[in-house]
Write a structure and sequence with these properties.
Layout: E1 2-15, E2 18-25, E3 31-32, E4 34-37, H1 44-56, E5 62-77, E6 80-92, E7 106-111, H2 112-118, H3 122-133
Parallel strand pairs: 1-6
Antiparallel strand pairs: 1-2, 1-4, 2-3, 2-7, 5-6
Helix pairs in contact: 2-3
The structure holds adenosine-5'-triphosphate.
Length: about 140
């Protein structure tokens, strides 16, 4: 089985209506948080900062201490089964403007409830629910 490792972030910003979270529309159709494959020699957080910059153009990012959670899944690629692990952090930005990369079809900033409903996969929804345990769903 092929092994793939990615890192990503539940990235939010403060809006007049409270915290809003960034979701991206992936080429295969699903909605998920910003993430990407770990390159050789990178720490998880370096990957996250690079992927946020490449996928959204956002460069001001600060990590919220105490949140690090792994999501695992399997998928088929060219007839091979891939086991993928993605480590997610919680991070904040002050930037509203998103310059989406060609790798994605779209983006949205949504409040906690709407983001939860928009996320395609249950494991991503469960991850988001962990954010609420930190008191972040206000
Ligand atoms: P990245 O480079 O950002 O890590 P990618 O676009 O190469 O991502 P994934 O987003 O991991 O790849 O998608 C690969 C396959 O796995 C797709 O078929 C997708 O539908 C499926 N997939 C993506 N996220 C999940 C998930 N959280 N749970 C189950 N299957 C998922």
């Amino acid at each position: 089985m092929l092994e793939e490792r990615s890192a990503g972030a539940i990235l939010y910003r403060e809006s007049p209506d409270g915290k809003i979270y960034l979701l991206l529309n992936y080429p295969s159709g699903h909605w998920d948080f910003v993430k990407g494959n770990i390159e050789k020699g990178e720490t998880f957080k370096e990957t996250v900062l690079r992927e946020i910059r490449e996928e959204t153009g956002i460069t001001d990012v600060s990590f919220i201490d105490g949140f690090e959670n792994k999501v695992e899944y399997h998928y088929q690629r060219d007839g091979n089964l891939v086991h993928k692990e993605v480590v997610f952090f919680l991070a904040k930005t002050g930037t509203e403007h998103v310059k989406i990369s060609h790798e994605h079809q779209g983006f949205v900033w949504l409040n906690f409830k709407d983001a939860l409903a928009k996320l395609t996969y249950k494991n991503a929804q469960n991850l988001m629910k962990k954010v609420s345990e930190l008191g972040f769903n206000a």
